[in-house]
UniProtKB/TrEMBL annotation:
InterPro entries: UstYa-like
Recorded metabolic or biological pathway in which this protein acts: Mycotoxin biosynthesis
UniProt similarity note: Belongs to the ustYa family.
Protein name: Oxidase
Record PANTHER family: TAT PATHWAY SIGNAL SEQUENCE, YALI0B05434P
Entry keyword set: Membrane, Oxidoreductase, Transmembrane, Transmembrane helix
GO MF term set: oxidoreductase activity
Keyword Membrane: yes
Listed transmembrane segments: 39-57
Length: 246
């Protein structure tokens, strides 16, 4: 046998057995290594599975699905809107009389829903995050579960405060009921403003303080359309049509 052949046989023998270690001991080592490899592979698969689950939970599509399931209110589109003075809704001349105030506030009716913010929600039990529903009028003969949409509650409160401001401006005494309702509305609007947290940066404009700056806003037309499609019974107020307010 040539020297090269002898050398190759020696190398092969070195891999086949451990010097000074019996064959059964080598088998034990191999089995131990096999178990370690199996455990390592299992741990790796568990880690990969956990990573996939975490990715799915944190993905935008999954978050949107979970948000959709937690509330019956859809996510409305947003658009840029300039804040400008609109004297159709408020102006300094409207406080000359209570009638003039109410005629101006009457212009707010189209920006509230047909049911003044109340929606019908018969499947409210499907949403765990909702509080207990109100009992709202569905038609002339039936009531059912429903809710008030906050933005329309806010509009009602602001309209109420404007009307009562004129009453005080005209010199009438403030009643206890008006004081109680006004305090509620002031604090409700305070918390609503803080909740929305509009961080638009306002600067110097020709339109005056606070005006002429674009804000990123909810598409109010889309919101109003949704509220009307899910509205409870259409509101019928006690006042003549031209003096009806929110």
């Amino acid at each position: 046998m040539s020297g090269a052949g002898v050398h190759a046989d020696e190398e092969k023998q070195a891999f086949l057995s451990l010097p000074g270690v019996p064959d059964h001991a080598a088998t034990v080592v191999e089995q131990r290594n096999s178990k370690l490899w199996s455990y390592g592979r299992l741990a790796l698969e568990v880690i990969m599975a956990a990573a996939i689950v975490l990715f799915l939970v944190r993905s935008p599509s999954t978050r949107k699905f979970r948000e959709d399931m937690s509330s019956p209110v859809p996510t409305f589109p947003r658009k840029s809107s300039f804040f400008i003075s609109n004297q159709t809704f408020l102006n300094e001349h409207m406080f000359a009389s209570n009638k003039q105030t109410r005629l101006t506030l009457h212009n707010w009716l189209p920006i509230s829903s047909d049911a003044r913010g109340y929606i019908s929600l018969p499947n409210h039990t499907e949403y765990d995050d909702l509080v207990e529903p109100l009992e709202v009028r569905l038609d002339r003969y039936h009531n059912g579960p429903g809710y008030m949409v906050s933005v329309f509650h806010q509009l009602h409160c602001l309209s109420y405060l404007v009307e009562k401001f004129q009453v005080g401006y005209s010199g009438e005494n403030l009643t206890r009921e008006v004081a109680h309702h006004s305090a509620h509305c002031f604090d409700y609007l305070r918390q609503s403003i803080m909740c929305a947290g509009d961080t638009t940066l306002e600067g110097k404009t020709e339109a005056g303080p606070g005006w002429g700056t674009p804000h990123e806003c909810v598409d109010y037309d889309a919101l109003l359309d949704w509220a009307n499609k899910n509205a409870a019974s259409k509101w019928r107020g006690p006042m003549p049509d031209e003096l009806a307010i929110l």
